[in-house]
Amino acid sequence: MRARSVVALFALLSVLLLACGPNLGPAATATPLPPPPTNTPSAEKVTEAAATNTPKPIEKPAATNTPKPIEKPAPTDTPQAVDEEPTATRAAQQQGGIVKKPTPGEQAQGSQGSSVFEFKSHTAWADDAGNLSIVGEVVNISDQTVDTLVSIECVLKDENGQVVQGDFGAYLDRPAIPPGEKSSFWVLITSDQLGGVDANSITDYELTLYISEDPSPDVELTVLSAETSQDSDGFYIKGTVENQTDQTFASLSVYSTIYDADGNVMNVTLDIIDLSPSNLGPGEQADFTGWFVDHFDGEESFTVVVTGWAESPGGDSQGPSTDSGMRSGAGILEVQSHTSWANDDGSVSIVGEAYNVSDQTLDTVIMVEALLTDSGGNKVEGEFTAYVDRPVIPPGEKSSFWIYISPDQLGGVAADSVSDYELLFWISGDPSPDVELKVTDASGGEESDGYYINGTVENQTDLEYTVLTVYSTLYDADGNVINATLDMINLDVPLAPGAQADFTGYFPDHYQGADSWYVFVTGYTADAAGQ
Asked: How would you list the strands of the sheet with 117-126, edge to edge?
């Protein structure tokens, strides 16, 4: 894809889905899904929808099995050279848990001579975008269960033996690690974090573990079944998990690890599935999917760990939760135009625009929910949601939206049997995390491989942005929406106040008959993007 850079979504606990309230809200006129048209999006479009056209960087797709909140970039097939084994040490008791990592080089206090963890297997690689991934496993060799947050610190060295400056780390995946058991980890270090150092020049790294006093915020659940499959867009681990606890969970985190024939870790990934508002109660079961976009050739075995979160990871500090003041959008937002189609892979896309009919500016995160009905008039079970695109919608202005519903979400219901839907809006009390920037120039048109909207955006604010999100909408001759998409761009150089950057919105299909278009661009600071 030209002129596009898919943003990596970085912080493990940084992605949230809005919690729904009761089913009250404005309903769009229920419109039957048309038969699959000749310009129905191709498999390429569907793959792109699932992998790149996701909600905002700090938000979570609605119960889709798309890549993790810190979305993993497609790695290369060749691991980076490692000159020596990392060592594991027990650190001083640290404060801050999720927020604060131990200070590099800080000496362990208490039990300095007792090793708690050993590194079982690990590997690393540089990807085409200049990011570095380090994945592996540790085993608890102590006689105590570790049930607090454990951070992993990485010290990188280049080919000259020089230490790369930066704070590089992550957390072990499992919330509780009994004696003799193991946990995976994945440290993603972006090109921005490397500060101009070429990822391919890094030939050595050292890993150190730090054990905090902060209790793990999630709970490991019971995996009842899991099996693997591979197709044109990646390697999948799909299964069923059961809530064996007396708690209710609003989201799941799926940690997947694959191994080569010698049992060495090849890759680790994470997928987050939002379950709200139905949630996963005691004794209930839910399906899950782990997805590897690349770096899975030669896989011989796998493990998968699923954890449950009482609220979306990160709580109110990162986004709306069940008590964040969600209210109906009835009388505030109305659907101005919308359409839908069934994709060749069995998924459904619903696109449209919401119009602010109130006299107040809306500047909080807004969710759009679709209620589906099949050709027999039966409700299709599931939570099908997305976010309205614009961060601020003044009175009389509009915002695009796009709900992508995967085959897994449909739960066996054929996409072309979905014949009707209603749209509801939910308004949270959480401020929008991004800022709309000034589009100074833009032009759009059809080319041989799709429809492009190219332009320039200017940062008219006093903040600096590291991520741009490009929201593009196409209309027919009557002004009706025929498609909406978004493209995320991770900027190599932050966009400073007064500076400009180029952008591209791209439609690989479902653009035939486009007569006009609209585009707006938002910016995320490094903090808002979780970088």
From this structure: 117-126, 132-140, 182-189
- The upper half-sphere exposure of residue 457, i.e. CA atoms within 13 Å in the direction of its Cβ, equals 28
244-257 pLDDT, tens digit per residue, is 998 888 889 999 99
Residue where a domain stops, chosen among 215, 234, 254: 215
* Cis peptide bond prior to 217, omega within 30° of 0: no
Q: Is 401 helix (H, G, I), strand (E, B) or coil?
A: strand
Q: What would the DSSP string read from start to end of 126-142?
A: E-TTS-EEEEEEEEE-S
Q: What is the CATH number of the domain that holds 495?
A: 2.60.40.3230
Name which of 36-40, 141-145, 219-223 the model is least confident about.
36-40
How big is the chain by its Cα radius of gyration, in Å? Answer: 23
Does residue 6 have a pLDDT over 90? no
**Contact present, 253 and 306 (Cβ < 8 Å):** yes
Q: Domain containing 194: what range?
A: 117-215
Strand segments, DSSP code E, in 106-176 are: 117-126, 132-140, 148-158, 168-171
- In sequence order, the 6+-apart residues with CB closer than 8 A to the CB of 259 are 121, 265, 266, 299, 300, 301, 302, 303
Q: How far apart are CA 130 and CA 122, in angstroms?
A: 20
Which of 216, 243, 227 minimizes the C-alpha distance to 306?
243
Does the pLDDT of residue 39 top 80, yes or no? no
194/233 same-domain check: no
The pair of structure tokens assigned to 15 is 């992605």
What percent of the chain lies above the pLDDT cut of 90? 43
Q: What angle do CA 99, 154, 492 make, to 5 degrees?
A: 80
Residue 278 exposed, middle or buried by CB count within 10 Å (0-12, 13-18, 19+): middle
What global pTM score does this model have? 0.46
CB count in 10 Å sphere of residue 420: 17
Rounded distance, CA 55 to CA 488, Å? 10
Separation CA 85–CA 66 (nearest Å): 33
pLDDT at 276: 66
Of the candidates 306, 305, 287, 307, the residue with the CA atom closest to the CA atom of residue 239: 287
Tens of pLDDT, residues 350-391: 999 999 999 889 999 999 999 999 888 888 988 899 999 999
**Residue spans of beta strands (DSSP E) within 127-282:** 132-140, 148-158, 168-171, 182-189, 202-215, 219-220, 222-231, 234-242, 251-259, 265-274
Q: How far apart are CA 434 and CA 7, in angstroms?
A: 15
Q: Band of the pLDDT at 217, cuts 50, 70, 90?
A: confident
Backbone angles phi, psi at 200, to 5 degrees: -70, -15
Q: How confident is the model at residue 479 (pLDDT cuts 50, 70, 90)?
A: very high
Last residue of a domain, one of 312, 344, 375: 312
